[in-house]
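Predict the 3D structure for this chain.
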Amino acid sequence: MPTMFVPAVVERVQPEPRAPMPPRRARRRPKADGIELEIAGVEVRVGADAKPRTIEAVIRALKAHS
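Done. Predicted structure below.
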């Protein structure tokens, strides 16, 4: 079979200008969930924003009742 050619026109197409993207917000890491304690069968969750003294008081109270 002989090689056949067909006429072709190649045009460079300019892409349509895109609307500018809004600036992205910085992603924040999710806050830690806190601390989970289980002492003598009692499970307690202390929030991540709890003060160290509060955490200490919770642990002491759990130990006192165990």
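Helices lie at 52-64.
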